[in-house]
Write a structure and sequence with these properties.
The chain is mainly alpha-helical. Helices cover about 85% and strands about 0% of the residues. The longest helix has about 90 residues, at about 10-105.
């Protein structure tokens, strides 16, 4: 025996209720999406704040490195000048020792 399906008539009221339920479900899903987007906005603002802080620290470190570079350059210039002066004095002392040894027969070598 075959069962007969009852055909129910679609009325405008039934269609309106179905569409209303569909829109309500869609609205509920969008509420969840809105909450997730709000959460992402909050996290993104925190990340942006941290990036600004890191940029500031990076700028400070860069300035300190530049200052240290300048200090090191000045120190190396002074060291080079002292080395040149030392080499000149060493050469002059060698000449004085030679004169003392050759002319006055005085040997002042400490070695």
């Amino acid at each position: 025996m075959a069962k007969k399906k009852k055909s129910s008539k679609m009325t405008l009221d039934k269609l309106a209720l179905m569409m209303g339920r569909g829109f309500a479900a869609t609205d509920k899903r969008f509420d969840g999406v809105d909450r997730r987007l709000d959460s992402m906005d909050t996290r993104l603002l925190l990340v942006e704040k941290k990036l600004v802080e890191h940029d500031t620290k990076f700028d400070e470190i860069t300035a300190k490195i530049a200052e240290l570079t300048d200090t090191l350059d000045a120190f190396l210039k002074r060291l080079t000048a002292h080395e040149e002066e030392f080499e000149t004095l060493k050469s002059e002392m060698k000449a004085v020792k030679k004169i003392l040894k050759d002319k006055l027969h005085i040997n002042i070598d400490l070695r």
